[in-house]
Amino acid sequence: MTPVREDVAAAIAALRAGRLAVVPTDTVYGLAADGENEAAARALYAAKGRDRVQPTAVLFASVEVLLERVPELPGDAVAAVRALLPGPVTLVLPNPARRYGWLNAERPDALGVRVPAAAGPGAEVLGALGTLVATSANLPGGRDPRRVADVAPELVAAVEAVVDAGELPGTPSTVIDLTGAEPRILREGALSAGEALARLAAAPTDRRLPAEAAPP
Predict the structure, then answer these.
(1) pLDDT at site 1
(2) How buried is 140 (Cβ within 10 angstroms: 0-12 exposed, 13-18 middle, 19+ buried)?
(3) Which residue, 8, 9, 34, is CA-closest to 19?
(4) What's the rounded mean pLDDT across residues 3-11?
(5) pLDDT tens-digit profile of 181-207?
(6) How far is it, in rounded angstroms, from Cα 93 to Cα 88?
(7) Are strands 29-34 and 57-60 parallel, antiparallel or unpaired?
(8) Sign (positive/negative) of CA torsion 189, 191, 196, 197?
(9) What residue segments make up the domains of the chain, in order of their start?
(10) How far apart are CA 79 and CA 165, in angstroms?
């Protein structure tokens, strides 16, 4: 068995204890907290100096974990997830059960989700936790960090652990709102809007029922 890197082990321990860490994704370095810990998420907002009404995405270790933890997603949302994730995309999906509601105070019926595609130390951390709440490890208005050296010193001081995966692509995820009648590109990033929309158009509709409504 390959030993766990010291910085990875430190980040996993810190996150499980409700503290913060800087973790690499498939796009940029993220300021992260345990995705199931509301108090840790609030600490993340405070560290970044971010208004709590600004929504923050939940990172899931895999598509399967996402569907397990948000089982009531409607079929068209499930189809979109399977078409675009894993990958450098944030999907804003309907959230009928209002899960993780503290992350989107103004729209608790919507949820931003990510499933990063990259392997490596960041994936090890995410895999150990299952979910992370994460936002770019910069201060409001700052440059998205592609290297640990780009992370704001104020944020490094606020976290318990930093996981270094070298230089990352540096372009943030493409954000797509799927809560309306048609997909809406909120931010074009690592995946072009044209490619994202083409994948959505080609996706077969998933008619899966929510878990609680499925027949025995």
Answers:
(1) 64
(2) exposed
(3) 34
(4) 93
(5) 999 999 999 999 999 999 999 988 644
(6) 16
(7) unpaired
(8) positive
(9) 6-207
(10) 31
Question: Listing from the earlier edge strand, what are the strands of the sheet with 161-162?
Answer: 161-162, 21-24, 29-34, 131-136, 57-60, 110-114, 89-94, 174-177, 184-187
* Rounded-to-integer distance, Cα 1 and Cα 146, Å: 30
Cα dihedral 39, 7, 150, 160 sign: positive
* Angle made by CA atoms 173, 174, 178, in degrees to the nearest 5: 125
Secondary-structure class of domain 6-207 per CATH: alpha beta
Q: Are 132 and 33 in contact (CB under 8 A)?
A: yes
Cα–Cα distance, 201 to 106 (Å, whole number): 29
Write b or e for each residue in 61-74: b if 16 or more Cβ atoms lie within 10 A of its Cβ, otherwise e: bbbebbbebbbebb
* 29: its two tokens: 């370095």
For residue 24, the cross-strand partners are 29
Question: Torsions phi, psi of 131, nearest 5?
Answer: -140, 150
pLDDT per residue over 39-56, tens digit each? 999 999 899 886 655 788
pTM, to two decimals: 0.91
Query: CB–CB of 169/24 below 8 Å?
Result: no
Full DSSP string of 117-161: ---SHHHHHHHHHSEEEEEESS-TTPPPPSSGGGS-HHHHHH-SE
